[in-house]
Design a protein that fits this description.
The chain has helices at 50-56, 61-77, 93-101, 114-123, 158-168, 188-192, 201-210, 226-234, 254-272; strands at residues 2-3, 10-11, 27-28, 31-32, 83-87, 106-111, 128-131, 143-149, 169-180, 213-221, 282-289. By secondary structure, the protein is α/β, with parallel strands linked by helices. The protein has one domain (26-289): Rossmann fold, CATH 3.40.50. It has a 7-stranded mixed β-sheet, sandwiched between helices. Strands 1-2 form a two-stranded antiparallel ribbon. Strands 3-4 form a two-stranded antiparallel sheet. A hairpin with a 6-residue loop joins strand 1 (2-3) and strand 2 (10-11). The longest helix is centred in the C-terminal third of the chain and has 19 residues, at 254-272. The two termini are 22 Å apart.
Length: 293
């Protein structure tokens, strides 16, 4: 069920024209814009980084490992996935992995910055894409699974986003999240990435439960590399011009990337076996929408 952004009418349609009021969202860069006023903003992210991300993700150990983790969680908790919405889909790297693993699933990618959608559409031609504000998701009881991967930390009103996610999921639908973990890791990298927080496991679980979910799985990610990550953040220094480069952590040499990838492969092996680490640079969580009693 879709929700008209102008009059809140619920309707079933392949398009976005509201049958009640006739409202149709404008197109921005070729995609329906449900929050057009925010399509080119930079409050929670710098859109100019999308081009760099698109060129770095596929060869970077962190993005590769996170995709492996997401697919592991989907295969374990959502093996019959039929419909999936990703909030903050960026350049479509995660959606491309899901499309390969679940070729028959209906995939939708949403991004507040229309710039990223152009890269995503090139990567996943079979998915639908829209520009959207996660604080106002125009769906009700529509998706089997919804994912937000390193998105919530950019939004001050995360409680509002979680409530909207709950609304968009079918009864019993599954939410999968990844977020940066441990406030003690806060550094200039978080500031340059436009983060508003790093989560504790307790905080995230409380907020997700309050939004109408039951937690079914959670654990730490980038656990074996936590000491190295702490050192990197502890001695983080600006460039010679006095500025920090938020992409610097992604630009690493081939040998270092292979070494870190090997460590993450070992960590993911433990995760696949059901071992959950208590601490790590990131936190993952799987929750199921409560059904009415």
């Amino acid at each position: 069920m879709k929700i008209c952004s102008a009059c809140n009418t619920r309707f079933d349609s392949s398009g976005w024209d509201c049958p009640a009021c006739g409202h149709a969202p404008p197109q921005v860069n070729g995609f329906p814009a449900l929050a057009a006023a925010l399509a080119d903003s930079s409050e929670g992210f710098h859109p100019e980084y999308f081009e760099q991300l698109a060129s770095l993700e596929a060869g970077n150990f962190w993005f590769q490992s996170r995709n492996t983790l997401i697919l592991l969680l989907l295969e374990r908790h959502c093996p019959t996935l039929k419909s999936f919405l990703e909030i903050g889909c960026g350049t479509g790297f995660v959606l491309s992995g899901i499309a390969s693993a679940f070729p028959s699933a209906s995939l939708v990618g949403a991004e507040i910055y229309s710039t990223g959608l152009q890269y995503a559409a090139q990567r996943v031609s079979g998915a639908q894409f829209m520009q959207m504000d996660a604080r106002r998701i125009p769906f009700e009881s529509h998706f089997d699974v919804l994912g937000a991967f390193d998105v919530l930390e950019h939004i001050e009103e995360d409680f509002m986003v979680l409530a909207q996610i709950c609304q968009a999921l079918k009864p019993g639908g599954v939410l999968i999240l990844t977020v940066p973990q441990h406030p003690f890791l806060w550094s200039s990298q978080d500031e340059m990435a436009c983060h508003v927080r790093r989560y504790t496991a307790k905080e995230l679980k409380r907020k997700v439960a309050n939004a109408g979910f039951d937690i079914v799985d959670s654990g730490s990610f980038v656990a074996l590399l936590l000491p190295l990550m702490w050192l990197s953040r502890r001695f983080d220094k600006p460039n010679i011009d006095g500025h920090h480069d938020p992409m610097a952590e992604l630009r690493i040499g081939r040998i270092a990337n292979l070494f870190l990838s090997a460590i993450m492969s070992m960590e993911l092996m433990f995760t696949r076996l059901g071992i959950r680490f208590p601490a790590g640079g990131s936190l993952f969580l799987v929750a199921r929408k409560r059904t009415a009693v």
